[in-house]
Every structure is written in structure tokens, then in C-alpha cells.
Amino acid sequence: MEIIPEYEMEEAEHILEASGPHGVDALQLAQTISINIGIIGQSGSGKSTLINTLRGLIPDDEDAADVGVTETTSYATSYAHPNFPSVILWDLPGAGTPGFPKETYLQRVNFNKYDMLLIVGRGRLTEIDIWLAREASLHRKRALFVRTNIDIDVMNAMEDHPDTFDEKRLLESVRKACVSGLKKHDCPSDVFIISGKIKNVAKWDFPELSKRLVEDMVGMKRQAMILTISANSKELIEEKYKALRFRIYVTAGAFVTGKETLTRPGHIVAADIKVLLDEVSIYRMQLSLDAKSLERLSDTHEIPMHQLQACVYSVLPRECIDNTAEFIEKLLKDMAVNSPLKGVARCTPIVGAAVTADLSYSTAIVVLRRILYDTKKAALNVLGCVMGSSRMSVE
Ligand SMILES: Nc1nc2c(ncn2[C@@H]2O[C@H](COP(=O)(O)OP(=O)(O)O)[C@@H](O)[C@H]2O)c(=O)[nH]1
Ligand SMILES: [Mg+2]
Description:
With 395 residues, this protein is of the alpha/beta class. It contains 17 helices and six strands. Strand 4 (116-122), helix 5 (127-138) and strand 5 form a beta-alpha-beta unit.
């Protein structure tokens, strides 16, 4: 049985102290701080596509941003993450069109409200791209420049120069042109070269972009942000794992604060199982292992479903997926019989004198930690499978 490491107990103690004896407020707080991210750029540059992909959606999904070859976004539209409504991605109308001339654009899109901007451009750097980057800099806004459509450029270059085509060189020249163009005008020059299409999330700079979005958020905001981005790189899966591990102490806190507490680890109340089940389903959704996410991965990367499932089942017992409630119940019972929970008895002091902590709190922590750890391992397995297949399709 895993023992909770000292440093982690200290972290948990810190969070719980900061947010009152029950710790529940920490999670609520993380969910109520709103983060506004403005996705800005010329019409057709791929803003709406990028928003959908960051949220793990395809354009035809319900609630996805409208995508199309004609101007489709005529007012600022907010897209909250389904699970974490406090992080808001703003799909903004294209800048510099007759309907949205430069002169009134910043005011009409409410430029000041954004905590961060993603300036989206395709093709060569345009005057509008530079103008937006300069405004971001003048307004002291955190901004990243996202250069989309690299998939099309790669395809064209392959067709144009079949004998001399060199993808690495092409990327270098695109990057150099963007960075030097932005620097020349004293603009922030963090450039990410991507394809916004969901099938390309593991390619070019997309994983770097996702990671950078996370890094740029601090404290609680950072934690809320991590949980809104779909798990498409190893680093992001690890970050999500850390963020989800923090939640464990809060979720387990429900056992000591709720009315129907477990008095002995072997004595299982349906309400307790429900708390654990809900948490486990959040892990699966967050780490893209829920049925919908797996189906989508299978479709977009053309990997047979049974292959993805095999990656999951090689780590997570099949019954943990097919009958989670029974699996949890069995774990709890095993622990009641086999484990005196020596290591986790140290949890008790964190909740302090305000509550009478009992063994159910420790039990919940151990069960959740074990399932979360295995879910992360399964997510890394699935990612390995997807990366393998996307490398194959490039070669
Ligand atoms: N191949 C490719 N097509 C893209 C990419 N980004 C956007 N598109 C396509 O470009 C068109 C315009 O995209 P959209 O997201 O609506 O642009 P917006 O006006 O900036 O919101 C749509 O047909 C998208 O499918 C990309 O990175 N690669
Ligand atoms: Mg749009």
C-alpha cells in the first residue's frame, strides 16, 4: 500500500489551512476565479478552430465554435469549459474586416478584459498581425503568437519541391520570418507553429503551446487552467495528474464533513461510493479516457478502438472501467481486511480539531490516489499509441 509522502502532506496541509478546516473552499475558489483568454487575429486565421481543438472538440460537436471559410464570428463569443466554467476562451471576430475596422476593433472586442491573448495568424505575417501584437505589448498583456495552417504549408512545399523538400528547414524559415517580423516592431515574439486541426494536436508546436498556456498561469488560476486543456502531451498529463492529486484531499474531506460518514473502512455507504465514483469519472474525462474521448481519438487518428482499449486495460483492470462502483467497493473492503492504514493515519492532524477525522478519510485518500495513479499510467499508454500512429502517418 502506498504511503503518502511527507512533502505532499505538507502541501495538503497548506491548502487546507488556507481555506478553512474542511478544505472544501479551496476547490470552489479554484473554480470561481475566472480567467479570460482572448483569441484574436484576422478573419480566417483559424481562431475558432483553435478554440475547439484546445477544448478537445470538432466543429460539428454541439457547443463547438463555428468554423468556416466565410466570416463566421460576428461578435465576441465565450466558450467556458464544460467542467471548469471559470476559464473562458473568447472567440473574437476577425480584425480589420469591413465590419470590424481597426479603428474601433479593440473597443468592440473589449480588449482590456483579457488576462491573456493568443494572436492567431496564418501565412505571412500581416500588418494586422503586427498591429495586434503591438497593441498587446502597449497594453502590457501576456500574448503568444500562434501561426496556424502549417499542415497546408508542408503539403504545398512537398508538392512544389518534391526533390528538395525538407520539413525541418521549412519550419525554421517560417519561425524565423515570424520571430524577426515581430521583433522588428518590438512585439512579444513567442511563436508557436501549429495546425489547429484536432487530428494534429500531437504535431509541430501544438503540445508546446498547450504546455506554455499552462505555464503562464499562476497559483490557483494555473490549476484551473490545467484542468481545461485536453491531455495531449506527456507533460500535460503529468501536470493534470498533480492538479487532480490536490483535489483528493478536498474530496476526501467530504467524508469527514458530510452527514453520512463512514465510521469504519469496511462499512460502505452508497453516498460515499457516489463521491468516489464522481471523482474517478472526472479523472477519466480529464485524462481523455472516457468513452467519448476514446472514440474521438480512434476516429481522428484512425486507430481501432480495441487497440486503444488494450492500452487502457493493460494498466487499469477491466472491472475498474466496466463496473467502477463494484471495483471501488472491493478496494475498500480489501483495505478494511488487510491494511491497518498505518501510513495514512498521519492524515488526521491536517483536518485539525475542527472535525473528528476517522479512518474513512484516510481510506478515501488511498483509494483515490491508487485509481488516479493507474488512470494516469493508462493515459500515458494511450498517448504513446496515438503518437506512434501519428508519426507513422507523417512518415
Ligand atoms: N488545414 C488547416 N485548416 C485550418 C487550420 N485552421 C483553420 N483551418 C480552416 O480554415 C478555415 C477558417 O477557420 P476558422 O477557425 O473558422 O477561422 P477564424 O475566422 O479565424 O475563426 C476553416 O475552414 C478551418 O477548417 C489549420 O491549422 N490547418
Ligand atoms: Mg471564427
